Amino acid sequence: MDKVLVTGGLGFIGSHTVVELQNEGYEVVIIDDLSNSSAEVLEGIEAITGIRPLFEQIDLKEKLDVENFFVRHSDIKGVIHFAASKAVGESVKEPLLYYENNISTLVYVLKELKKLPSAAFIFSSSCTVYGQADELPITENAPVKAAESPYGNTKQIGEEIIKDTCKIAPNLKAIALRYFNPIGAHKSVKIGELPIGVPQNLVPFITQTAIGLRDELSIFGDDYPTPDGTCIRDYIHVVDLAKAHVIALGRLLQGKNKSNYETFNLGTGKGSSVLEVVKSFEKVSGKKLNYKIVGRREGDIISAYADTNKANDDLGWKTELSLDEAMRSAWEWEQKVRG
Ligand code: UFG
């Protein structure tokens, strides 16, 4: 079976994708620098799949190490590139760190892929490239808006770099997957999200509040022009998201792609408000959540959810898991981590 490199494979989405790749029979090599993850995640992956993936602790900013890796693994057929920094607020304070971590690493990996006889490349992009879209649900043809943060900019620039490279490298085929809001954990409760410090994202903040690590959730604004006044997002179960990567990779390896560079939205197509997410949590956990409404968070868009037609029809993928299932798995994971 084909050998696949997963960069950032010990992170939240990366680890779930490694599980799905191994379930489909791929041979996986993980590169991770452990800056925002732990080697213990390997135990979780092994416990679920019965296979311990190869792991190399490499910092992709070290160009020579990247070159040497591909000399050792010249039989790699595909790369799923998760390795990146992802905190929006931090990126505003440390833009150069984000450009170096997210852009230089991408360039070094693509340079090596250009040398291979053929290579499939899957890129972690984000619905952040659309900003506040004028029309909902958001299709892949919606205009890319000026980025709100250096983090968002690295996703836009990353897509451009890949598109430009595909134009001149006939051996390279790529897909950018634009994620909406990934949440949840594997049903085995052996892998999940491990945020370091105070979580910035809604769902880990909810579960940490319920477990007693945080006093209360602050809901950022209830005066938006939405049915209940809180912001709307498209929350997608991380296992559904992981499966989309395996399908996208197979599409490229089997030559089913329509062009050498494609983009797909990965979402459920259903928008949920912050209060609906809180209600879902309370329902599946049986716990009352302590929360208060505070002012709006700077930079938040009002509403974003995916048009899933292209992913459903062209990619042949759709989500199977509900918001409740995602919230239940997130809660079970939190209890296990803190238990
Ligand atoms: N929210 C709260 N309280 C919190 C945290 C979040 O009310 O403590 C609200 C936010 O205001 C927003 C919603 O919950 O309305 C979701 O917020 P997240 O921070 O979980 O997610 P975002 O949609 O803001 O951001 C996510 C990713 C970013 C990415 C962005 C767009 O975290 O990396 O989607 O792709 F840039």
What can you tell me about this protein's structure?
The protein has a domain at 3-183 and 238-266: Rossmann fold (3-Layer(aba) Sandwich), CATH 3.40.50. It is built from eleven helices and 13 strands. Helices cover 41% and strands 18% of the residues. With 339 residues, the chain is α/β, with parallel strands linked by helices. The chain has helices spanning 12-23, 41-49, 63-72, 88-93, 95-115, 150-168, 202-211, 238-253, 274-285, 309-315, 323-338; strands at residues 3-7, 27-32, 54-57, 76-81, 119-126, 172-179, 181-183, 217-220, 232-233, 235-237, 261-266, 272-273, 291-294. Strands 3-2-1-4-5-6-11 form a seven-stranded parallel sheet, with helices on both faces. Strands 7-10 form a two-stranded parallel sheet. The structure holds uridine-5'-diphosphate-4-deoxy-4-fluoro-alpha-D-galactose (UFG). Residues 86, 88, 126-128, 152, 181, 200-202, 205, 217-220, 231, 233, 274, 297, 300 line the site of uridine-5'-diphosphate-4-deoxy-4-fluoro-alpha-D-galactose (UFG).
Features:
339 residues, Rossmann fold, 7-stranded parallel β-sheet, binds uridine-5'-diphosphate-4-deoxy-4-fluoro-alpha-D-galactose
Short description:
The chain has 339 residues and is an alpha/beta fold. The protein has helices spanning 12-23, 41-49, 63-72, 88-93, 95-115, 150-168, 202-211, 238-253, 274-285, 309-315, 323-338, and strands spanning 3-7, 27-32, 54-57, 76-81, 119-126, 172-179, 181-183, 217-220, 232-233, 235-237, 261-266, 272-273, 291-294.
